[in-house]
Amino acid sequence: MKLLIRWVIVAFSLFVAAWLxxxxxxxxxxxxxxxxxxxxxxxxxxxxRPILKFLSCGLIIITLGLFVLVINGLTLWLASAIAVNxxxxxxxxxxxxxxxxxALIVSIVSVILSALVKKEEISKH
Length: 125
What we know:
Blueprint: H1 2-20, E1 24-27, H2 30-55, H3 57-62, H4 67-85, E2 90-93, H5 96-124
Antiparallel strand pairs: 1-2
Helix pairs in contact: 1-2, 1-5, 2-4, 4-5
């Protein structure tokens, strides 16, 4: 159940990013696009992102963690490229800055919604 909730949160966060960032476009059946992108982004965050963070550990320390924002942008950009080229899903990110700001929005919305869901779970117990 937690995985399903997390998937919905990421899909909704991608919707908000596409709505707010001019360089992110969705074509085709939007909710299917967001659902597939959430799966792809989740897999990239689970497999590739830790490797990127390990390899750029020095930059992360020097920038006091701000380089993680660049990594987040790169992972969103990579997820978009995989979605478009391998799965023919229409989630287009025009460039690095669109990916950067899109990833920033996805992160903020995901943190807020995850905190709200967590708070709801705590209040039930």
